[in-house]
Amino acid sequence: MNRTRIILLAALMAATPLGQALAQDRDPRGGRGEREQSRRQISEAEALSRATARAGGADYVGSRGLRGSNYVFVFQRRGGQVFEVSVSAYE
User: Fold this and answer.
1) For the chain, how long is the longest CA-to-CA vector?
2) Counting beta carbons within 10 angstroms of the beta carbon of residue 15, is it exposed (0 to 12), middle (13 to 18) or buried (19 or more)?
3) In angstroms, rounded to a whole number, what is the distance separating the alpha carbons of residues 81 and 47?
């Protein structure tokens, strides 16, 4: 009987912080908080624009697509050096 009480008490203690954390993450209007809104995914075209600006005049070769949470683009300098530019997929 004592073991059952301890297990039940431990389960209740573990579940309580989860409910509080979910309640704190909610916006009063019913949506997600600012943390979720700041994680908006950008388009590949917008990421390419950012990568082109970082490439410093190199020629665009192609896209390796989305790797994890980054878009990866391939560029080539005039001397023939090929390099990749990685841009976060989230703002």
Assistant:
1) 78
2) exposed
3) 22
Instruction: Look over the chain and give the mean of its residue pLDDT values, rounded to a whole number.
Output: 81
Q: Contact at 8 Å (CB) between 51 and 85? A: yes
Neighbours of 58 (CB within 10 A): 19
Helix (H) or strand (E) holding 81: none
The tokens describing 32, both together, are: 């997600």
The token duo for 8 is 């039940």
Prediction pTM value: 0.58
> In sequence order, which residues have a C-beta less than 8 Å from that of residue 81 and are 6 or more positions away?
none
38, 61, 85, 87 from 64: Cα distances, Å: 25, 10, 10, 12
Those residues of the chain that have pLDDT short of 70 are 1, 7-38
69-87 core/surface letters (b: 16 or more CB in 10 A; e: else) = ebbbbbbeeeeeeeeebbb
